[in-house]
Amino acid sequence: MRTHKGIPISNLYYMLAYVFEFVDESELIDAGADDFDNALDLLAFLLESGIVSQVKHGLHKEYVSKREELLTVRGKIDMLATARSRFARKQTISCEFDELSENNQMNQILKMTCLLLVKSDYVERGRRDAIKKTMLYFSEVEPIPLRSVDWAKIAFTRSNRSYRFLLSICQLIAEGMLVDDSKDGFVLAPYIDEDALNRLFERFVLRYYKVHHPELSPSSPKIAWALDEEYSGTMLPTMQTDIALSNAERFLIIDAKFYASSFLNQERYGTKKVHSGNLYQVFSYVKNKASSSPELEVLGMLLYARTREAIQPNERFLMDGNEIFVRTLDLAGQFDDISSQLEDIAALMKPKQGDCPCKTK
After folding, report:
1. Could you report the average pLDDT of every consecutive run of 10 residues in the chain (361 residues)?
2. Are the CB atoms for 63 and 100 separated by under 8 Å?
3. pTM of the model
4. Is 133 in contact with 157 (CB distance < 8 Å)?
5. Residue partners of 44: CB distance under 8 A and separation at least 6
6. d(CA 278, CA 256)
7. Dist CA 337 CA 181 (whole Å)
């Protein structure tokens, strides 16, 4: 079984399916039906399939500004440039106008990503050939450097929302697999780097609960500091949660981590220790939330992606009245097993036997 940093390629596919929001049993492909050598090969397959589907509906077009020398007026006349043409004994009129074009940023990103994929030996040859064929539809599109893209500024509307999935893959490739090779310029690595994989892991867990447990209001809210006096400065760090689940009785804060080592070398005298910074962080989130919401039972959890280490953290601590859990999520099993582990976490939101459904103050 081919794996990506301990994750079977098929399970990586399902993680992407949740994150990129195309979880639909009628549309999900059988990831095991194709034999992917690495993560880049899988992403190339998803991107090529998505582009083929998009081409059937037509490439996205936007109005772009153009300037041309014409024999008749179109749009706005550039008087100065037209006067220069007249002095040069030319009969043309310099016009500025807007024109619907496929040569816009979204298509430029797709084309640049595809050009990188067809040059990569990590992508299966037949897949590269298929991508080359799709590029025929982008003949009027100019590629742009992926490192120059401000992904946060890309706006999706009703007319281009089908591009969200395609550009999400491009962004993952650009941020997690694009490396600078001194000989060949920018090339693609076969694997997603750890930072990008960590963000993918966080988004997968959050999206899973949004799909399967909307009643728990899954979100990633900011936690306010429990201050004793009003503070209008900007020096306090933001407490941005990865995942939060909530109901009328409980509020669970989950900090998701994907590391090569769950313990991050936190070992002393031969004893493994949970990373102190991670524990301090989730404890701070829990106590500040508990202070602002005394009506709720606030819990915290460090959720690590399981590593190849012999010892995996699976602990529960009662800290100053709040439960803090340290769990691992094994991404190497069948996807049903992954779902079962996530369901066990969701079960923590149920009232314990004997609990009153409402807390007394």
Report:
1. 69 84 50 69 90 92 84 83 82 86 94 95 94 94 93 91 91 88 71 88 95 96 92 90 96 90 53 82 96 95 78 84 93 88 95 54 38
2. yes
3. 0.79
4. no
5. 117, 120, 123, 124, 127, 128, 131
6. 10
7. 39
